[in-house]
Design a protein that fits this description.
Helix content: 40-55%
Strand order of the largest sheet: 10-9-8-11-12
Distance between the termini: 40 Å
Strand content: 25-35%
Order of helices and strands: EEEHEEHHEEHHEEEEE
Largest sheet: 5 strands, antiparallel
Amino acid sequence: MTRVTGGAAAARVLDHGQGAVCTDIVRVGSANRRGHRDLYRPRGLNNRVSWKNFGRALRGLACALLGVQLWLLWYTSTYDASTVTWVCDIEGCASDQFASGAGVLGLGAGVLFGLVSGRALRRATAGVSVALGAVAALVGCYRALADGRVERSTDMGVLFSAFVRFPVSTWLTVLWILAGAGLVAALWGGWFSLRRTAGLRRLSPRYATAEAELRGWSSVGGGRGEVTAVFRDAKGVRHEVPTVVDRIALTRPVLAAYDRARPGDAARLRVVVPRRKGPRLR
């Protein structure tokens, strides 16, 4: 066997004994300093990307399933509340019907939903969880009214229903307040997260991102200050652009989201604070 190397390819010539010659061209890679280990790097990289996408898909599926569970629990807690029968004695009250504990289970489902979806929803997590549960309970109440199970003057227990009982009209008022507060919290948290991460801007092909270094600090109030963002654009040109950032940006690695056509334009620059990464298991 004779091996011929050169450039980005290597030729392997095998003599089969009858004058027949077989030549295989094997792609080696561009770096000679690391030798044949480069041959295996693309496959390992693809595997890591595949597992990462698979993990994201599983997380998304888990969030969706927990969201459905949260909805069903709070819907059941109001729709079937009027059918719950309680047995009380000197030690307390108890019921073997699922609707009697659906509200408490709904609280736990809301916490679990927040823990799993927090990485994606960020500061909007709590608001989304509260709004989703409150709206589900409202739908259950109105459905129970439409089906004739209860009337607006009927006393009904939703959470710890053996002890906390109010008319349906009161529950509707409370649930509407919770739904509105949750929606406001979700919108505020979503806006805050999108502003800090420049989420919408990074989706636009007009903008690009680059690693940046922040220099200087001049407080402007509200936990924000003026700094100079130093970065290199896609062409390798160095830019120093004044901008205003949150104080937390000084403690984390940041990115500069800049306009491809005008990288040095301070009005179009946004400093991105990526979410904090958790510890990796090796």
